[in-house]
Automatic annotation (TrEMBL):
This is Esterase-like activity of phytase family protein. It comes from Zestomonas insulae. The keyword Signal applies. The keyword Ribosomal protein does not apply. Residues 44-196 form the Phytase-like domain. Residues 1-18 form the signal peptide.
Length: 336
């Protein structure tokens, strides 16, 4: 009887000392190396909210301007922004609740940018795709056109996203976009509370959900990078990029870029830019949140754009900032 009770007690209590090999190993993201830092001249409204390499140049968009993109050209230690104007037709009702649409409209009348463009991506043909957070819509601009057209997105996108807990809160709607080179697959990032990834496929005249629109939906908080006195913030996405067959997410609260599987959104590997971003001279006052809003990748590195808003950096800089990071050792496709 004594032995039976002892055996039962051991089963309930478990081993007194855990096997180290059985403990989960938390990967510490490798730090990216900063190659150059540029202030952006010529964006009077500031608020850089998206980046993409299109053709032979880097392009940017501001979430305070509904009628232009900016071509960025290096000049000394700055990027000169040259505006390319376009027009957008009226947005068709997409099924967002009236209260959410009304609140967004009222705020945008005050701060500027009714369409609230939060991301930019390009396909191999040179078409530009801009995601509107305010309307949960995507505007397509052909290379030689000065007028855009709204993509006919499946009505299931908003319905499925909201059923998964996304797109429920003001100013926490769509924040990133990526298109594949063929212009046939489109990914959208829901910003936060809950954050998530959506995917659509081009089917003749419409962009449809194939097997469901939602790839990923995540809630909860994201702790700040280790070693920095930053409070936890809601998990977020601030931009997406598609490169070399993989989807990459910009995660500003974690100060990192993550490579993900395009079909599921599952994380494969992450790289940090915290060591450069959180240097004292590059901080914005009592900064408690990330500024990184735009992401573009190529074989040699990454471009990350910062939306400084109305904040002044500790070194006195008030213009938007673009960083150029070198690609990690082994490239963006490296296993480890």
């Amino acid at each position: 009887m004594t032995r039976a009770w002892l055996a039962a007690l051991l089963l309930i209590a478990g081993p007194l000392r855990a096997d180290p090999a059985a403990l989960p190993v938390l990967e510490v993201p490798a730090e990216l190396k900063l190659q150059a830092e540029y202030a952006v001249d010529g964006m009077p409204a500031g608020n850089l909210s998206g980046l993409a390499w299109c053709g032979d140049a880097l392009w940017a968009v501001s979430d305070r301007e509904d009628d232009r993109l900016y071509r960025l050209t290096p000049a000394a230690n700055v990027l000169r922004a040259e505006a390319e104007r376009f027009s957008a037709p009226p947005v068709v009702d997409n099924g967002l609740p009236w209260g959410l649409r009304t609140r967004t409209w009222l705020v945008n009348q005050f701060r500027g940018g009714d369409l609230d463009f939060e991301g930019l991506s390009c396909d191999a043909a040179g078409n530009r795709y801009l995601v509107s957070e305010a309307h949960v819509a995507v505007l397509k601009l052909a290379p030689a056109a000065n007028a855009g057209e709204w993509l006919p997105l499946s009505p299931g996108v908003i319905r499925q996203a909201r059923a998964s807990g996304m797109l429920l809160h003001f100013n926490a709607l769509l924040e990133g976009i990526a298109i594949d080179p063929q212009g046939e697959r489109l990914w959208l990032a829901a910003e936060r509370e809950r954050r998530g990834l959506l995917v659509l496929h081009k089917k003749q005249a419409q962009w449809a959900c194939t097997g469901g629109c939602v790839l990923l939906s995540e809630g909860g908080s994201q702790p700040g990078p280790a070693g920095y006195d930053l409070p936890a913030q809601p998990r977020d996405f601030s931009d997406l990029a598609f490169f070399a067959g993989k989807l990459f997410s910009l995660e500003r609260q974690a100060y990192r870029i993550c490579r993900r599987k395009p079909a599921s959104g599952e994380v494969e590997r992450c790289w940090s830019f915290a060591a450069e971003a959180l240097q004292e001279a590059r901080r914005y006052g009592s900064q408690a949140y990330g500024m990184a809003e735009g992401l573009s990748l190529d074989e040699k590195g990454a471009w990350i754009g910062l939306d400084s808003g109305t904040h002044t950096r500790n070194d006195g800089e008030t213009r938007p900032i673009v960083w150029r990071f070198a690609a990690p050792a082994g490239g963006w496709s490296a296993a480890k």
